[in-house]
Amino acid sequence: MVSEIFEVTITGTHGVKLPESAAAPFYKAGHKRVKMTAWFKDKHIEFHGALHLNKGNFVISFGKRYQKELGVGFNDYFDLQLAEDTSKYGVEMPEELSAVLESDPMAADVFEDFTDGKKRSLIYYVLRFKNSQTRIDKSLIIAENMKHGISDPKELIRDRR
Q1: 24-56 tens-digit pLDDT
Q2: b/e map of 68-78 (b: 16 or more CB within 10 Å)?
Q3: Domain residues of the chain, as ranges?
Q4: What is the pLDDT of residues 90-116, one digit of tens each?
Q5: Single pTM value for the model
Q6: What angle do CA 36, 32, 28 make, to 5 degrees?
Q7: Is 145 left (phi over 0), alpha (psi -120 to 50) or beta?
Q8: How far apart are CA 8 and CA 40, in angstroms?
Q9: What is the C-alpha end-to-end distance of the chain, expressed in Å?
């Protein structure tokens, strides 16, 4: 399932109001999370997010990180397209975290027992880092903390060495 490409702008600090014709089919089909592609001038980005129905309007969050990456600001119009999110976690799993979990079945079991939101939160945390070695290091810290019974997201990312 893929929508047509449509034009949007940022409302408030990080919201984007979606046309009902684009968002309603996803929402009605039970796809509360979608994959999005945004275009502005010579740049494009892909990201995952949740569809929200707020006071009769479909909206998504388009945070500062995405605004900066795409190069858009308040009052800029850019193109957006929705697609069905077929990822396992509602966001693409970083290779480094996946490799750490594959090599540590105990940590992987704990990870799978977390709520979907907590899984995404940890995935987004690891994705914040551009350097692959840093992603590996952060993934190893999370895996060790999970095996020690830590489940609080703020504590999961703490290096206890």
Answers
A1: 999 999 888 899 999 999 999 999 989 998 889
A2: eebebeeeeeb
A3: 6-84, 95-156
A4: 888 999 999 999 999 999 999 999 998
A5: 0.75
A6: 110
A7: alpha
A8: 11
A9: 46
The 8-class DSSP code of residue 21 comes to: H
Q: Show the tokens assigned to 15.
A: 């919201």
CATH fold of 6-84: Elongation Factor Tu (Ef-tu); domain 3 (2.40.30)
Q: Residue 79 in contact with residue 40, Cβ under 8 Å?
A: yes
Give Cβ neighbours of residue 24 (< 8 Å, ≥ 6 apart).
58
153 CB-near residues (< 8 Å, 6+ apart): 118, 121, 122, 125
90 CA to centre of own chain: 7
Report whether 3 contacts 25 (CB < 8 A).
Answer: yes
